[in-house]
Amino acid sequence: MITAIGDAIRAAGARVIDVQADAAHNRMVVTFVAEPDLAVEAAIAGAAVATERIDLRRHLGEHPRMGATDVVPFVPFADLPMSVCVDLARRFGSRLWTELRVPVYYYGEAATRPDRRELERVRRGGFEDLLAHLGDPDRAPDEGPPTVHPSAGATAVGARIPLIAYNVNLKTTDLQVAKDIAKAIRASSGGLPNVKALGFELADRGLVQVSMNLTDYRVTNIWKVFSVIRDEARSRGVDVDASEIVGTIPLAAAVGVIKDAVIEPAFRMDQILEKRVWAGE
Amino acid sequence: MITAIGDAIRAAGARVIDVQADAAHNRMVVTFVAEPDLAVEAAIAGAAVATERIDLRRHLGEHPRMGATDVVPFVPFADLPMSVCVDLARRFGSRLWTELRVPVYYYGEAATRPDRRELERVRRGGFEDLLAHLGDPDRAPDEGPPTVHPSAGATAVGARIPLIAYNVNLKTTDLQVAKDIAKAIRASSGGLPNVKALGFELADRGLVQVSMNLTDYRVTNIWKVFSVIRDEARSRGVDVDASEIVGTIPLAAAVGVIKDAVIEPAFRMDQILEKRVWAGE
Questions:
Q1: Which of A41, B9, B178, B185 could be B46's S-S partner, Cβ–Cβ 3.0 to 4.6 Å?
Q2: Over 60: is that where the pLDDT of B75 sits?
Q3: How confident is the model at residue B181 (pLDDT cuts 50, 70, 90)?
Q4: Averaged over B34-63, what is the pLDDT?
């Protein structure tokens, strides 16, 4: 299955750069890169395999899901405008319904309604909940009639910038310090915009951690978050141990850290030597 | 001339990414990228045109120079080890003498003697001074006999990492503050290693500037320099206005700023999304 989906995407001409599969979640995430038009073809090719092979009526896993192809975000790479990704999401969504008969909910920047911007909200309750509310006009899909594909469910299709997973570890064993700082900085309690934060214990290391998702690094980037946490910790008599940037970040986010950290607002992405050479500028 | 040299380098298969020519200096700098073996061919192709067309006996310009092809540094790109660049420098130097009869002085990481590591020292006095000291055993070239090419002089051939030109502007009109801080941080007066620094006035902006070359960002990078200058300025009651990163910096230097600024020592270059995609990893 995992191989077949990856192969279909590759055969359509895209470059698969990451595949993560997880038995507990019973879920796979394929990350691929392609020119815009090709990205739609490759996503359709992958979705066709998933639609044919995965039956949600017999699918178990810890992660909430509403479709065999559960969620397809189009993420701009390098200098591509977000508007192009919104357009790709809509073209892919339209084809998912007309070609594979899978209803589609648009989310993120491709959302058609404000209450569908957040993926969590679109996907709440998963496949089973969607089945139970087929008549609810509020749950009607953006593509296709108010129904689900019998075995493949429905798909959330979106456009978004890359998320950044970022943690800051603090030199204390007092979990409450991490929880308090997480609360102080998270957007939902009036902290920094586009920041989700939780406090955790790293018991084996004698530290606590503020664990975050930065959902729009253009608004709140790593340096800003680091500085605020460092100051919040200091005011509680606690020092920062270190940061952890989990997985990849876009070059624009790295450039943004430099701009902020050394007060260089004019610094540009094409001042990175490799950007010029690799991107052929 | 400028066109002919660039064309020869391109015809050899290299990609020219920058050409700077300056009438006052009467000098051009061509930056090109190529696979290692090709880089030697392209450099020979460019040097052949310069050797044929430039006659130092009739050449004037403000910049010190000792050869028609004055200096050829091989700079590692992305993950290429410096040892490869040293090898390329030696192969190019050997061919410059055997094929074009231009004597060669190795400098930087390719130097054969400690007193030839610094380009300024190798090139001191330029072509005319070299002519006047042909008999001095201390001035004997590394490739070729103790002489110069009659019209094309001699060439400094080296291997080095990219330099970073970096300035920090201070909110004061007191030039002495910039001069004092420059002195405090420059390597030659016992400050930060691999830092050259001068103090300047930016009279039209009501600021002063500490203007620097960071000759090895692996040892002393932008964040370290910024932090030390900020603290030195603070201790004199002066604030930093902003930084200026001049021209390009390698991705590794940008990654280094992030490591230091947010205390993320494990952050790796391949966590930059574009690096993975562009470099095909």
A1: B9
A2: yes
A3: very high
A4: 91
Record the pTM. Answer: 0.80
Go through A12-36 and write b for each residue having 16 or more CB atoms within 10 A of its CB, e for each that does not. bebebeeeeeeeeeebeebbbbbee
Instruction: Name the residue type at position A210.
Output: V
Indicate the SS3 state at residue A243: strand
In this complex, do B262 and A261 lie within 8 Å of one another by their Cβ atoms? Answer: yes
Interface test with A, best of B79, B161, B258 (most A CBs within 10 A): B258
Q: Does B163 touch chain A (CB under 8 A)?
A: no
For chain A, say whether B219 makes contact (Cβ under 8 Å): no
Same domain, A152 and A217: no
Burial annotation A125-148 (CB, 10 A radius, 16+ → b, else e): ebbeebbeeeeeeebebbbbeeeb
Which positions of B are annotated as active-site residues?
63
Of all residues in chain B, the one with the smallest CA distance to A279 is B278
Contacts of B39 in chain A (CB under 8 A): none
Q: Residue B281: inside a domain, yes or no?
A: no
| Contacts with A47 (C-beta within 8 Å, 6 or more apart), sequence order | A69, A72, A96, A100, A102, A155
Confidence of residue A79 (pLDDT cuts 50, 70, 90): confident
- The verdict on A24 touching B (C-beta cutoff 8 Å) is no
Which CATH number is A220's domain given?
Answer: 3.30.70.670
B267 touches chain A (CB under 8 A): yes
Q: Do B242 and A254 touch (CB under 8 A)?
A: no
Report the percentage of chain A scoring pLDDT > 70: 98
- For residue A158, the tally of other CB atoms under 10 A from its CB is 24
In this structure, the answer to whether residues B169 and B70 fall within a common structural domain is no
- CB-based contact, B24 to chain A, within 8 Å: no
Quote the pLDDT of residue B43. 98
Nearest CA in chain B to A163: B273
Scan residues 47-106 of A and list those with Cβ closer than 8 Å to B. 77-78
Three-state secondary structure call for residue B143: strand
Return the residue of A nearest to B222 by Cα.
A262
Among B135, B156, B158, B157, residue whose Cα is nearest residue B147: B135
Of B126, B159, B192, the residue at which a domain comes to its end is B159
Question: What is the C-alpha separation between B242 and B199, in angstroms, rounded?
Answer: 15
- Whether residue A63 lies in the annotated active site: yes
Query: Would B123 be classed as within a structural domain?
Result: yes
Structural tokens at position B242: 């902003």
pLDDT at A281: 47
* Contact between chains at A33 and B277 (C-beta distance less than 8 A): yes
Domain that holds residue A35: 2-159
Question: What is the pLDDT, as a whole number, of residue A62?
Answer: 66
CATH number of B100's domain: 3.30.990.10
Whether residue A281 lies inside any domain: the answer is no
